[in-house]
Design goal:
The chain has 1 helix and 4 strands. With about 100 residues, the protein is mainly α. It has one domain (about 1-95). The strands form 2 sheets. It has a two-stranded antiparallel ribbon with strand order 1-2. Strands 3-4 form a two-stranded antiparallel sheet. A hairpin with a 4-residue loop joins strand 1 (about 1-5) and strand 2 (about 10). The longest helix has about 70 residues, at about 30-95. The protein is rod-shaped.
């Protein structure tokens, strides 16, 4: 059986050893069972893919928020360092 961006295609071997798709009137009960299982699996995989994409989007948003917070904290740290230097300078003048 093969899946190529579409439905499952049951395959059969020819006399010369090649594998070709079965015609619809050649499908067996096992083929239908396998197609149903593959369809269920494809549905679950699609659901999983959507869940993973949603999780990636959430992680990207969190990453952006953390980058912004980091930027703000660095800015605050620079301001505090500048204030500290000004206070040290003022203390030296007052001594």
């Amino acid at each position: 059986m093969i899946i190529e961006n579409g439905p499952l295609i049951p395959m059969k071997a020819t006399e010369d050893g090649k594998t070709i798709p079965k015609k619809p009137n050649e499908f067996t009960l096992d083929d239908f069972k396998i197609m149903e299982q593959m369809s269920t699996l494809a549905s679950k995989m699609s659901s999983l893919r959507m869940t993973l994409m949603d999780e990636c989007d959430a992680i990207n948003v969190e990453n952006c928020v953390l980058k912004y917070v980091r930027y703000k904290l660095k800015k605050d740290a620079r301001m505090l360092e500048k204030d500290k230097q000004e206070l040290e300078h003022t203390n030296e003048i007052l001594k």
